[in-house]
Amino acid sequence: MKFKISLLLLLVVFGLQAQDRDATEMAINTQLENWHKAAADADFDAYFDLMTKDGVFIGTDAEENWQLDDFKAYSKPYFDAGKAWTFKTLERTIYHPKKSKIAWFDELLETQMGICRGSGVMRLDGKEWKVQHYVLSIAVPNENVSELTELKNEHDSALIKQMRSN
């Protein structure tokens, strides 16, 4: 009898932990969807309210490593014009260690650039999950890497030279 009670308690505890993890992952997923929607709706305030005050956005260009204030300044004209960017989630995986205030994720997105990959870090800020760090990459099929490498060779060579001279 003691064994059955212990087993039942153990199942309840694991069930509660799974529910907590599911609720956390659902909250993170909702925040990311809201973040992408705010960009599609060109809602500057909503978009940046979903990022932490020390947020970072890494864009697809090698020179796009935006700290929050610089990213706001860069993107404000797009939001003001009523068209920022539209990212539609194709798939997303969220990684969240139990009881952590940090989670990370990766996602595939349908964008104006074709399929892109986003990855990032979410941080619990008070009671709300916010984007702390985001990296956007254009997904390139392996069979097209040689063509792409050749296409960007001149630009990359100049940038590498510039960065090594600093």
TrEMBL record:
Keywords: Signal. It comes from the Bacteria. Pfam families: SnoaL_3 (PF13474). Coiled coil: none annotated. Residues 28-141 form the SnoaL-like domain. The keyword Cell cycle does not apply. InterPro entries: NTF2-like_dom_sf (IPR032710), SnoaL-like (IPR037401). Residues 1-18 form the signal peptide. This is Nuclear transport factor 2 family protein. It comes from Leeuwenhoekiella parthenopeia.
